[in-house]
Amino acid sequence: MSRAPQPLAGLGWAVLLSGFCAAVPVSTIHVAVRRNHLTDRHVTRREHYWRVLLVCAGSVLCGTAVARGAGAPPLPIWILLAMAAGLALTGAMTLLGTKVSMHAFYLTGLVLAATVVLSPWWLLALLPLLPAVAFACLRLRHHTPGEIALGTALAVAVMLNAHLLLPSAA
Description:
Blueprint: H1 7-34, H2 46-69, H3 74-95, H4 102-117, H5 121-126, H6 129-139, H7 145-164
Keywords: Membrane, Transmembrane, Transmembrane helix
Transmembrane segments: 12-32, 52-71, 77-97, 104-123, 148-166
């Protein structure tokens, strides 16, 4: 027997898990900047990367544990695990010396996940954001074109592999 879709339940999971995936890391960065533990909210100094990556990874993994413990459907778990895998890959590359644009990575991942999970129309709706974010990163001089391209390419690779593990209910 198939259960009827429950959009409000899905919205509830989205709100809860966005706290772990966005609100906690952004708030932590904000507090760290105000306390002079980080120089800026864009985390431009290489020696600060590992701290932020640990907070992000820990927060996503805590979100995954909470979601599993609270009985979340498979799709939010899949999204969190894809995010954790991407964070591990981009984080490792960045810490080892090759800077990766996390903005390009996560926005590309979001566009691809929305396209696969929701509708191909999301690709058309969200695709214009990719060059806008790339332009902003270049304009701020926080990334080179290569770092942006690397972030985008890694997101495509992670999402292609994650697609193989997509829960059948999605």
